[in-house]
Specification:
With 194 residues, the protein is mainly beta. Helix content is 13%, strand content 41%. Strands 1, 6, 7, 8, 9, 10 and 11 form a seven-stranded mixed β-sheet that branches. Strands 2-3-4-5 form a four-stranded antiparallel β-sheet, with no helix packed on it. Strand 10, helix 2 and strand 11 form a beta-alpha-beta unit. The longest helix is centred in the C-terminal third of the chain and has 10 residues. The N and C termini lie far apart (45 Å).
Length: 194
């Protein structure tokens, strides 16, 4: 099963679905092997920035600073709201990115993150549903990786993003049974003002 999933992810193979249904494609990335470094690290806390292949004009931009990932998505990933946000504790954005498509057009991106939860280095995962809104991309919904049926729930939220969802002023939501430590639930406008 894992091998089949990996092969379909690698080939960007759409999940089987009837016409008109939402589908998924996956784009794996590896900062050292498949991405292009566009900004070098400073030899201290900033490790650098990498541009990775996305899907249909939606690129993936990953920066690593102070052991925290920042991920921009879309046609202008560095300018996206998503790029300005990360978890407050040490974290890593994980490959692959799952793109949710409606009639073949990307409408959302789903990515799993590993987040340190305490000073002993224990971790948990979060799924972040990012809305793709024209030239912008912004966090829409967070789901704790331990939440029942987290992957299916992430797709449900991705498929239900409202046409009038406003990246600049709307606030992301969450499903979690372990609390929301380490996530700031603010709009992009509020994040820019901090």
């Amino acid at each position: 099963m894992r091998k089949a999933l990996w092969l379909s992810s690698f080939c960007l193979w759409p999940l089987a679905a009837l016409a008109g249904e939402n589908t998924s494609v996956y784009t794996p990335f590896d900062l050292e092997k498949t991405c292009i470094q566009v900004e070098r690290g400073d030899g201290m806390t900033f490790a650098g920035t990498w541009k990775c292949a996305g899907f249909k004009g939606n690129d993936i931009l990953v920066s690593v600073d102070d052991d925290r990932s920042f991920v921009g998505l879309g046609p202008n990933p560095k300018e996206s709201c998503a790029y300005a946000k990360t978890f407050s504790r040490f974290n890593t954005a994980l490959s692959p990115v799952e793109w949710r498509l409606k009639d073949g057009k990307p409408v959302a991106a789903l990515e799993r993150w590993r987040v340190v939860t305490d000073d002993d280095g224990n971790t948990m995962t979060w799924l972040v549903v990012t809305a793709l809104k024209g030239k912008d991309a912004c966090p829409y919904h967070y789901i704790a990786g331990s939440y029942p049926n987290a992957n299916e729930l992430a797709r449900f939220y991705a498929d239900g993003i409202e046409a009038d969802y406003d990246c600049e002023h709307d606030t992301p939501t969450v499903d979690s049974k372990v609390g929301t430590d380490g996530i700031t639930f603010v709009s992009c406008a509020e994040a820019k003002a901090e």
